[in-house]
Amino acid sequence: MRNTSRRDFVTRATVGASAAVLARRVIAQTSSASTKGIPTRELGRTGQRVTIMCLGGWHVRSIKDDAEAIRVMHAALDEGVNFFDNAWDYYDGAAEEIMGKALAMDARRNKVFLMSKNCNRDYKGSMQCLEDSLRRLRTDHLDLWQFHELVYDNDPDWIFEKGGIKAALEARKAGKVRFIGFTGHKDPRIHLKMLAKPHDWDTAQMPINIMDAQYRSFQGEVIPVCLKKNVGVIGMKGLAGGYPEGRLPSKAGLTVEECYRFCLSQPVSAQVMGVTSMEQLKQNVAIARNFKPMTAAEKNALLSRTKEEATDGRHELFKSSKAFDSPHHRKQHGFDLDLPA
């Protein structure tokens, strides 16, 4: 019994040490920023370098004036941001449409590593999602196509049983998709189930923020597996959402810079940052451009300071409430949208 316990302890210690080494490698290969550039990191096994700041497609569409939304996207490109995010269901397709319009101007599409997301699980629906996204984004291919919002325990099974993965593989073979990944905000166990499926994922997107470190933690449970499998990690919900300026700065007394610097000090390839104005874009670009990894002491001090608020999940209700699941996916799983979440 003692020998078995000792072996288990040594195994866990070795795995933990290996993950720590891999994590340091991700952060160490961060490129330096130029005056008009953003640091980059490699995106897992893809061999592509993307800016550590990824422009969030949902937030940029929340800018009501189309001309201003386009101006913000063009400014992001001019500042060196080369990674743009979107999804088939954002604003019922309007987010992809405005981004497509912005990228079609002066061949800007060629400057962007463009990601969008598939909201269906079956073959036919996935193919329709792809064709809709390509049309709206005015492009013949997506650099990264991710299965969106895996928030129910059977989502990974559905993707393989209903034909979604078949559609993704065919799309990649046809040159309509370069890389394939998945996203989710609910439960690390669902991500781990997806990572265990018989497919070599290129990317996995997940909540990465200060509070996540101590509550149903993706960075604690999922990132080490991604690093071992060479899956590029894309962080989201760095401010925990909920407000235009983010929940953590407005409700937890943290600065935007503290929040994003903590995220970027994790072994993520990029962090999706929401931008709803030119002022926010400038702020986020400055944070990314001037990024210096937090020391262990800085991280520990921040985690100690936020422990009480982090460990009950009050700032990450997207992990515990269906209210934060998109209507498309709630209907997909037969949940009544009128019922309390």
Give helix % range.
40-55%
Name of the CATH superfamily: NADP-dependent oxidoreductase domain
> What's the SSE pattern?
HEEEHHEHEHEHHEHEHHEHHEHHH
Count of domains: 1
Q: What is the CATH level 1 assignment?
A: Alpha Beta
Radius of gyration: 19 Å
Count the strands? 10
Instruction: Give the terminus-to-terminus CA distance.
Output: 46 Å
Largest sheet: 8 strands, parallel, barrel
Question: Which CATH architecture?
Answer: Alpha-Beta Barrel
**Unreliable stretches, pLDDT < 50, 5 or more residues?**
none
Class derived from helix and strand content? alpha/beta
What CATH calls the topology is TIM Barrel
| Form type | globular
Tell me, rounded to a whole number, the average pLDDT: 93
Output the number of helix runs.
15
Give the amount of beta strand, in percent: 5-15%
Strand order of the largest sheet: 3-4-5-6-7-8-9-10
Characterise this structure:
The chain has helices at 2-28, 57-61, 66-78, 94-104, 123-137, 155-161, 164-173, 188-195, 218-221, 223-229, 247-251, 256-264, 278-289, 296-310, 327-332, and strands at 40-42, 49-51, 53-55, 83-84, 113-118, 142-147, 177-183, 203-207, 232-236, 270-273. The longest helix has 27 residues, at 2-28. It contains 15 helices and 10 strands. Helix 3 (66-78) packs across helix 4 (94-104), helix 4 (94-104) packs across helix 5 and helix 5 (123-137) packs across helix 7 (164-173). The chain is α/β, with parallel strands linked by helices and 341 residues long. It has one domain: Alpha-Beta Barrel (TIM Barrel), CATH 3.20.20.100. An 8-stranded parallel β-barrel has the order 3-4-5-6-7-8-9-10, surrounded by 5 helices. The protein starts with a helix and ends in a 9-residue tail after the last helix.
